[in-house]
């Protein structure tokens, strides 16, 4: 490729979910309520946990942080997507694109580590109930929280630094609704072998570490629950894990469909799958945790009564 076709782009064009003009307003009308529901639902989870003394436990502490991260996660993506639905240019500056990519990777991986922390909490609660308060003390919860934020942000910083070293071709059109790492890489005409190797090694290790914690925790939980003699006791033990397992399945199921494949195989179908973990999972989390959790239901009712009484 000639040097005239090689540039460092000032901006990118986000094609979004559809390039047809007649689709833009219906898409805006669909995703605006989704964003509002996500933000309000997760805020309600945070307020409920903060206002109810019965919910001041490690599990709900991590859930409130997860809700906060989910709000940040969707705010990184959806407002720009909504603005592009109503814009003719659909442009995003190079710096804004890298910033969006940074926080998308960071918050996405923070979600993963928080889910692992919650799995560890359930493991301790079910397998070591007599030592639960001692093991899951305030200091350990804060340590898990710090790790859940620091590791993903350092991981994200590495990816952004590597992306910033790339040279991009004449095309600046991103076939996605946000600056996803895979979509931006496809525009590069310089060798991104180092970046892909990093994604498949360091990136895989960063993702698999919390996932392995979740798998090991639930294997130990499963073995412990099988030893409970009564069926009622087994159901009670499993019921405390149902909501968490549902969220983990949604989150990791959709991610594995998109990212555990070569860059050349990245298609439009993957763009649709991305919606599940970037938009739908954060929206569904409050419903999953509130509708399937008696303590959260009672906490929400108390919060509503308190608001009405003021």
TrEMBL record:
Gene: LOC110146650
PROSITE patterns: G_PROTEIN_RECEP_F1_1 (PS00237), G_PROTEIN_RECEP_F1_2 (PS50262)
Organism: Odocoileus virginianus (White-tailed deer)
Main location: membrane
Keyword annotations: Cell membrane, G-protein coupled receptor, Membrane, Olfaction, Receptor, Sensory transduction, Transducer, Transmembrane, Transmembrane helix
Protein name in the entry: Olfactory receptor
Boundaries of every G-protein coupled receptors family 1 profile domain copy: 41-289
SUPFAM superfamilies per UniProt: Family A G protein-coupled receptor-like
GO CC annotations on file: plasma membrane
MF terms (GO), sorted A to Z: G protein-coupled receptor activity; olfactory receptor activity
Superkingdom, natural source: Eukaryota
Location in the cell: Cell membrane; Membrane
Chain ranges passing through the membrane: 27-47, 59-81, 101-120, 141-162, 204-226, 238-260, 272-291
Topology in the lipid bilayer: Multi-pass membrane protein
Family: Belongs to the G-protein coupled receptor 1 family.
Function: Putative odorant or sperm cell receptor.
């Amino acid at each position: 490729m000639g040097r005239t076709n090689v540039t460092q782009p000032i901006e990118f064009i986000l094609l979004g979910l559809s390039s047809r003009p007649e689709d833009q307003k219906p898409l805006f009308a669909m995703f605006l309520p989704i964003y509002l529901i996500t933000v309000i639902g997760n805020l309600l989870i945070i307020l409920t946990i903060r206002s109810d003394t019965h919910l001041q436990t490690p599990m709900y502490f991590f859930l409130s942080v997860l809700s906060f991260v989910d709000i940040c996660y969707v705010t990184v993506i959806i407002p720009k997507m909504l603005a592009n639905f109503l814009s003719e240019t659909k442009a995003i500056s190079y710096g804004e694109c890298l910033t969006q990519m940074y926080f998308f990777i960071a918050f996405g991986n923070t979600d993963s580590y928080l889910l692992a922390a919650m799995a560890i909490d359930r493991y301790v609660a079910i397998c070591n109930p007599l030592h639960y308060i001692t093991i899951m003390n305030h200091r350990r919860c804060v340590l898990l929280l710090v790790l859940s934020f620091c590791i993903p942000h350092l991981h994200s910083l590495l990816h952004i630094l590597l992306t910033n070293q790339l040279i991009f071709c004449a095309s600046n059109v991103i076939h996605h609704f946000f600056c996803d790492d895979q979509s931006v890489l496809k525009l590069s005409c310089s060798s991104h072998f180092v970046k892909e190797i990093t994604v498949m090694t360091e990136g895989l290790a960063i993702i698999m570490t919390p996932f392995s914690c979740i798998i090991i925790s639930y294997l130990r939980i499963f073995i412990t629950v099988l030893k409970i003699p009564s069926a009622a006791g087994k159901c009670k033990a499993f019921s405390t894990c149902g909501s968490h397992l549902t969220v983990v399945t949604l989150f990791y199921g959709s991610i594995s469909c998109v990212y555990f494949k070569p860059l050349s195989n990245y298609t439009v179908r993957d763009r649709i799958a991305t919606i599940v973990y970037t938009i739908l999972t954060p929206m569904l989390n409050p419903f999953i945790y509130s509708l399937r959790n008696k303590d959260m239901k009672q906490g929400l009712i108390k919060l509503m009564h308190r608001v009405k009484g003021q």
